[in-house]
Design brief:
With 355 residues, the protein is mainly alpha-helical. It has helices at residues 3-9, 14-39, 44-64, 69-93, 98-121, 133-136, 144-163, 165-173, 175-180, 185-203, 212-224, 230-254, 260-278, 284-310, 321-330, 344-354, and strands at residues 314-315, 333-336, 339-342. It folds into 2 domains: 3-282, Orthogonal Bundle (ABC transporter involved in vitamin B12 uptake, BtuC), CATH 1.10.3470; 286-354, Arc Repressor Mutant, subunit A. The protein is built from 16 helices and 3 strands. A 3-stranded antiparallel β-sheet has the order 1-3-2. The termini are far apart.
């Protein structure tokens, strides 16, 4: 199936439509909220929460003995929020830093979750089949109510960001100043953390525990390369997330037995790599050309200063041909037989340099 045929089927095929809309909405949510995690230097937060959701899923199943997606998501949400509050507690009440607290919670919760999952798989209950889909994701299981929930969360997250935009913006860059203005830092932190946890939990069914952190961080990391404005970054990150979801779903549907979640993450990582290389502000390619231009400019200025200070003619045979050609074309030097001297424009350039 070609990509054009796939996009035609999106409007007629129930399963493809749900997967495409669901992954697009998830990508937009992760792009927006992941931007806050990246800017707050909590890149491991998504990884810790996604892994911490696993024991919540297992415990919810053990209690209910059913694979009701709503109940499993609720268990994952409670487990993820619990891990988030414990992380905040470790940071505020001990001498451990954020990365250490995130690493501890990730290891403890994921280890406990794997233990419970192993225990469940040894039970005779037939309903336990398929629980492992939360490890690596299974986008094909998305139904209309799942897509509707993702769209609601996307709209709700956007609305909350708009309502508390000024407060969140100031908190990102100077939390102490935000507190002096009378804003409740703790409430804002809990609000954004809750939204991130909810987005991660809803994405587990599609991308899985293992890859969810990449879905949260990759679009934001790519968007950061293109702008310094927060609202632009959030918009670009949402677009990158949606693009990853749609293209990943399309490629997965086109291929034979390709898992949707890993393909989506690979597309997101590809966007990050392209942004690192080609972004007009921080791209490696732009930085390379700027470095070469600055090196060239430095050589030109150094030669002009040397020529000016010596007050005499310099043999052009001692100069690189490209540098000589550039200086002559700019009219900063002139030739006198095999000798070079500054023009009036060249002398003006030297004076500007000295200033």
């Amino acid at each position: 199936m070609g990509l054009s045929e796939y996009f035609n089927l999106v409007f007629t095929d129930y399963t493809l439509r749900n997967i495409t809309l669901g992954t697009a909405a998830l990508g937009a949510i992760c792009g927006m909220l992941g931007s806050f995690a990246v800017l707050r230097k909590q890149s491991l937060l998504g990884d810790a929460i996604s892994h911490a959701a696993l024991p919540g899923i297992a415990i919810a199943f053990l209690i209910t003995q059913t694979k009701d997606n709503n109940i499993l998501v609720l268990g994952a949400l409670i487990s993820g929020l619990l891990a988030t509050f414990w992380i905040r507690g470790i940071i505020t009440r001990t001498h451990l830093k954020t990365d250490a607290a995130l690493g501890i919670m990730l290891s403890v919760f994921f280890g406990f979750g794997m233990l419970l999952l192993t225990y469940i798989q040894k039970q005779p209950n037939a309903n336990q089949a398929g629980l492992d889909k939360y490890l690596f994701g299974q986008a094909a299981t998305l139904v209309t109510k799942d897509v509707r929930m993702l769209v609601y969360v996307l709209g709700g997250s956007w609305l909350l960001l708009m309502l508390f935009w000024k407060e969140l913006k100031v908190m990102l860059f100077d939390s102490e100043y935000t507190q002096t203005l009378g804003f409740n830092i703790k409430f804002l932190d809990i609000l954004i953390s809750f939204c991130i946890v909810l987005a991660i939990v809803l994405g587990l069914q599609t991308v899985g525990v293992v890859l969810m952190s990449a879905m949260l961080l990759a679009p934001a990391a790519a968007a950061r390369q293109w702008t310094d404005k927060l609202w632009v970054m959030l918009f670009i990150a949402a677009v990158f997330g949606m693009t990853s979801g749609i293209l990943g779903t399309a490629i997965s549907a086109k291929g034979d037995n390709l898992s949707t979640g890993p393909i989506i993450v690979l597309i997101a990582v590809a966007i990050v790599l392209l942004s690192f290389v080609f972004s007009p502000r921080r791209g490696l390619l732009v930085r390379h050309f700027k470095f070469k231009q600055n090196k060239k400019t430095f050589k030109e200025k150094k030669f002009l200063i040397d020529l000016y200070e010596k007050k005499n003619l310099i043999n052009q045979n001692n100069l690189p041909r490209k540098l000589l050609k550039d200086l002559l074309s700019k009219g900063w030097i002139q030739q006198d037989d095999n000798k070079l001297e500054l023009t009036e424009e060249g002398i003006e350039q030297v004076k500007k340099i000295n200033i």
